[in-house]
Amino acid sequence: MTRTAYAFAGKASVNEQLRALTDACDPFTRAGLDGIGIQADWQILDIGAGSGTVATWLADRIGADGMVTATDIDPSRIPAHPRITAVPHNVAADPLPDGYYDLIHSRLVLIHLPDREQILNKLLAALKPGGSLMLHEFDCTARRTVVGGDADDAALFDRVITGINRVLRTAGAQLDWGIAAHTAMTQAGFVDVATDASMHSCRGGDAWANLAAVNTMQLHEQLLDTGLTVADLERFRALMAAPDFVAMSYLMTRTLGRRPQ
Which of 181, 190, 255, 206 is nearest to 29 (CA)? Predict the structure, then answer.
């Protein structure tokens, strides 16, 4: 596949996409970060902070001597907080300080970046010895089985999700990155690397379904190029609002590793 650019770059409905992502993913993200044992004086980097919900959650758990640096290509949606520094930053191209952070977190960023393995080297160098990197990613290759709906609904759901994945892969995403990150972090020099994952049923009208519907609006033209029709996409969006339709979410993974002491 030809690699181009982030599939959602410049798309409309960004606020709706971010709202659905945070509603769907924040509980799993917070649970993982909560288990690290965040210290009051930590320097934390949150990459691709989006609307800042995770950065704010982290900032509420550190003290006056700590700071969360929340970065994004467009940091304008990150709310003001006395312990958040919002910075415009491209992790693929812009430098990071060496040996500075106690914790680096990133969610659904590296999956989209073709230079993800090289970025891991940069993140390792930016951690203090003993500091931790936590990645939250999707493994889009895990089948999203329909568990509530008829055969026609299931076939349409599978076709649209396959189409979305095709668009993402063409744009440079690594669809199995949620699982592949474990090996990549180990090869980059992280130690004590561990991965766990979550997948659950989602009903029409909930955050996961809203995310799918918004994604089809953002990728509408590209999805038509995959062979889907306008009628297909309109019917899919209706399904995503139907409470009797139930399918499995994306497999969301959490991978944690440390820089050696």
Answer: 255
Would the pLDDT of 212 be above 90? yes
CB of 93 closer than 8 Å to CB of 68: no
Task: Decide if 27 is inside a domain.
Answer: yes
CA atoms within 13 A on the CB side of 236: 30
- At residue 6, the pLDDT reads 72
Mark residue 108 as left, alpha or beta (left: phi above 0; alpha: psi -120 to 50; beta: remaining). Answer: left
Assigned domain for 8 exists: no
- Tokens coding 260: 């050696």
Number of domains composing the chain: 1
Three-state DSSP state, 49: coil
Q: How confident is the model at residue 223 (pLDDT cuts 50, 70, 90)?
A: very high
User: 167, 159 in Cβ contact below 8 A?
Assistant: no
Evaluated on CA atoms 59, 65, 66, 72, the torsion sign reads: positive
In angstroms, rounded to a whole number, what is the distance separating the alpha carbons of residues 191 and 177? 19
Q: How many CB atoms within 10 Å of residue 31?
A: 12
Question: What are residue 103's DSSP bridge partners?
Answer: 44, 132
Residue 9 domain flag: no
67-72 vs 43-47, strand pairing mode: parallel
Question: Is residue 4, in this structure, part of any structural domain at all?
Answer: no
Q: What is the mean pLDDT of residues 5-25?
A: 84
Domain housing 63: 14-258
Q: Which CATH number belongs to the domain containing residue 148 in this structure?
A: 3.40.50.150
